[in-house]
Amino acid sequence: MKRVFASQDRAAIAIVRELLANEGIETIVQNENMSAICGEIPFFLAMPEVCVLRDEDLAQAQAIVERFESGEARDQDGKKPWRCPRCGETIEGQFTICWKCGTRMEAQDDA
Ligand SMILES: [Zn+2]
Q1: How far is the CA of 91 from the centre of ligand 1 (A)?
Q2: 67 alpha carbon to ligand 1 midpoint, in Å?
Q3: Distance 84 CA to ligand 1 centre (A)
Q4: pLDDT digits (tens, 9 = 90+) for 94-108
Q5: Domains along the chain?
Q6: How does pLDDT run across 41-66, given as a tens digit for each residue?
Q7: Which residue in 76, 111, 68, 110 sits closest to 93, CA to CA?
Q8: What string of DSSP letters covers 1-48?
Q9: Under 8 Å CB-to-CB from 64, ≥6 apart: which residues?
């Protein structure tokens, strides 16, 4: 198991997991609830981390994370942001799942 991404930003954690899942890469999040329960813990230790379950996915996962961090993923296909029909959050166009409540973009058709 290898760490590929760490952030205090839960939205970023969720987005990275979604991007990796889209490529068939299984991940888990470590330290997710640490900051809430351990006030004494140093900042860097409490940071949630995305880890790939299979080490052989590491290189591909790192490439995806690099693309995400550089912002390329945001611009590549020019998809428009969409509004989550369930919670009203605005989601970047390249993501198919609301990072906040997990509703799929397709659910808009039911609204
Ligand atoms: Zn939502």
Answers
A1: 8
A2: 24
A3: 5
A4: 788 898 999 988 644
A5: 1-76 (3.30.70.790), 77-111 (no CATH)
A6: 555 556 889 999 999 999 999 999 99
A7: 76
A8: -EEEEE-S-HHHHHHHHHHHHHTT--EEEESTTHHHH-TTS-HHHHS-
A9: 16, 19, 20, 23, 25
